[in-house]
Amino acid sequence: MWSRPQKAPRQTLTLDRIVAEAVALLDEEGVGRLTMRRLAERLDTGSTTLYWHVKTKDDVLDLALDAVFGEVRLPVGGSGWQEAVRELIGGWRAALLRHPWSATILDRPLMGPNALERTEFLYATLAAAGFAALKSAAYSLSNYVMGSVVMQVTWQDRDRDDTGEFLRKRAERYPALAEHGLDHAWDATFDEGLGYLLDGMEQARRREDGRPG
Amino acid sequence: MWSRPQKAPRQTLTLDRIVAEAVALLDEEGVGRLTMRRLAERLDTGSTTLYWHVKTKDDVLDLALDAVFGEVRLPVGGSGWQEAVRELIGGWRAALLRHPWSATILDRPLMGPNALERTEFLYATLAAAGFAALKSAAYSLSNYVMGSVVMQVTWQDRDRDDTGEFLRKRAERYPALAEHGLDHAWDATFDEGLGYLLDGMEQARRREDGRPG
DNA sequence: CCCTCCACTCGATCGCCGTTCGACTAACTA
DNA sequence: TAGTTAGTCGAACGGCGATCGAGTGGAGGG
Fold this sequence. Notes:
Two copies of one chain form a homodimer.
Chain A: H1 15-29, H2 36-42, H3 47-53, H4 57-69, H5 81-98, H6 113-129, H7 134-155, H8 163-169, H9 175-180, H10 186-208
The structure holds a DNA duplex (30 and 30 nucleotides).
């Protein structure tokens, strides 16, 4: 039939294109609006087609999250373990904050190649520094960065709504909270807390194993 | 009509009953299976009825999460700030771990009365201890406990599936990870990391403000 | 004793979701 | 040319959160 729609010579759909578009969609509209149908529409295809490249929607999220970890550059310099850790953890945090939706889907195993590579680097750095309680050290750091990103994403931009007023009205019941308000220098607070942790770790390292890093 | 079903003299539906049943449902089946319909069914009512007591499903989750925080007992003793913090944070962690689903919905403002009361206590304790950088101290601790709970819930019980084998097969690429495996003494690791943090905080406290707690 | 009122209940329905099925097609292979 | 296969897609299924408007039962006033 002459009216039959011409097959568009469209670019082949690939897993990479799907993941890239998913990240873009998540960045623009957030995790609640990522839909297989909407994602497919942006890729100019049918939602069914996605399922040939991907098993479930969770796969898309796993891939998108690992793509975020891929943005974290591994430290290169030969300085001390604290500097290397600061650089890795800082980049880790920055990447997650660039894609705030990622903080809300951190409750899944981070087994993608990019995440594993960064975790491996962290372990190796701490091992080289001579930490005997390697897991404790590594977990403390990843716990801290994960937690702080979740916290910041949850609370930032909340100054605009009525959360501040809500607390001010309850100043009698929550005096310390009301006094210190909500506005935050997030970066400085993060750095300071990381400093606490690194100082405490350094003490433990000296106690456990005196080898120089 | 004689066949008209008798109105059951059922117990009045209250917000408390809804929240309690939601927590039970979440405990038994996880966050993915909490449905307004299923929750209503367990309460022997229609799903529509829930919406008279609650505005959205998110309200149910907010209330359930705050109920979990309600399980955390506030420290009473008059010992040092570190002991008080350890007790609060430990109870905080324990409550969240008793309801693992809670770790996956921590990415929302914790503005319920129970959560606020615990946060207030944390601020007050640290302020009394003389911390100048109060927010940094408080955030470091909550970041740490949040992060470690999310991490543990994500990874525990994963030894049973093929995650361990997955890593063992990639031992060349990720030697440090493969060497240290997955099995964890979660409690000990948490305590050790908390120790790092508290030690680092104590150093900063002495530096900033020598007042006794 | 009846009527009104209102806190509370609920069946039906809307639009959207993730996922599946089976039919289709274009390009490559033998 | 015939067959195979990687890739596409319309239609549909069951379930979801939420809404609408029609009820209903018990308390309180006349």
